[in-house]
Amino acid sequence: MGIRQMLADYSPFNQQEEKDRELMLRYLDQFADLFGRENEFAHFTASSWVVNRERTKVLMVYHNIYRSWSWIGGHMDGETDFLATAIRETKEETGIEEVRPVSRELFSLEILSVDGHVKNGKQVGTHVHLNLTYLLEADETQRTSVKPDENSGVAWMGLDEALAKCSEPYMKLIYAKLNAKLKATQ
User: Fold this and answer.
1) Which of 31, 53, 61, 179 is the most buried (most CB within 10 A)?
2) Residue span of the signal peptide, if any (predicted)?
3) 158 pairs with which residues across the strands?
4) What is the end-to-end Cα distance of the chain in Å, rounded?
5) Are the C-beta atoms of residues 120 and 148 closer than 8 Å to each other?
6) Mean pLDDT lowest among 30-39, 63-72, 107-116, 162-171
7) Above 90 in pLDDT, residue 38?
8) Structural domain count, the chain
9) For residues 94 and 144, is the Cβ–Cβ distance under 8 A?
């Protein structure tokens, strides 16, 4: 299924998702390449909300650039399979080897601002991520490891603890939404 159809079929959870979905559909009409970083204004990314089997904990990483505990995700880099990207990024950023989608359906969407920063010695300008999120499950006893160029910590934490440890105000709202959606699916 193409991105346009996936967005059209998605039922927004709240006003933020409704507005962001509308903007994503407009950006698809306005911009040629939203699947690569070449579009310096906006591009698609995929994230994962990785929970344990009991749905009581979430796997977070301490993000070096944002200096905050964060979900897991990354750039599409030309790919068009969002779920595959979310799974790949989860394995790369946490070191876990086994992770499975709770559902192949899109779990959440959000447009996120990214402040200008330096990554790998190169300046990256301020831009936005058109982010699609998937709900994934992993065994919390798996060995984890950091990805030093991106994070300096990987930890399972309670759902409320993840919000408390996040230092980015807008992301706290996103994580609270993800937790509310998680509880609504149980």
Assistant:
1) 61
2) none
3) 57
4) 26
5) no
6) 30-39
7) no
8) 1
9) yes
